[in-house]
Amino acid sequence: MKILLAEDDRKVAEFITNGLSENGHSVDHVTDGREALTYLLYNNADLAILDRMMPGMDGLSLVKALRAARNDTPVLFLTAMGDVTERVEGLAAGGDDYLVKPFHFSELIARVTALARRHRDMAEIANLAVYDLTLDLLSRTARRQSQQIDLQSKEFALLEILMRNAGRVVTRTMLLERVWNFNFEPNTTVVETHVSRLRAKVDKPFDCPLIHTVRSTGYTMHGPR
Predict the structure, then answer these.
(1) Nearest-angstrom CA–CA distance, 108 and 4
(2) CATH number of the domain where residue 202 is located
(3) Is the dihedral of CA 33, 5, 11, 99 positive or negative?
(4) Is 82 helix (H, G, I), strand (E, B) or coil?
(5) pLDDT in tens, 63-109
(6) Residue 195 to residue 211: CA distance in whole angstroms
(7) Residue ranges making up the domain that contains 151
């Protein structure tokens, strides 16, 4: 795992870096808050370990700027500022965990592992994929073969349900209930109309259709078989 350590105490930084490296992690170390922010905005890190008090930019301001830039890199505050108010401030600013110095290294490793696992699980939940089509539920964007597909809100909701049920049949009634909140089946072609529009965006510009009609039942989504 690639970790950024932002710590201006070089002895502490050396201790943490050596320990993390011995546990199989790759660590980049910076001593300045602004340098840490630049690193996280322009490099891929699996986790950031930040001190609260650093030259250039303090840890709270750093995390707020990071989250404002829609960067969701997991952040573990590792700091001597440990009263309840300070811990709450750190988490409220966008930190994911908070460990107070002095600390046991085994606890740091446990928290690093837990954060990485939680972030990986969230990323899997937030992203759906069928063949070469991906749907990001956080940014609400769809891409196929690296091309972004612009979707209206109902089209996005319809595509999400089809992708969540990839390989299974989704009935017209199910779509009416989940996308349009109809708990009865009105005499309307709204589903067919929106599926047609969705196909025009998701299937027609590409060689392989993903949305398939199941006659007299509904729709299913899958790649080539």
Answers:
(1) 14
(2) 1.10.10.10
(3) positive
(4) coil
(5) 999 999 888 889 999 988 888 888 898 999 899 899 999 889 999 99
(6) 8
(7) 131-221
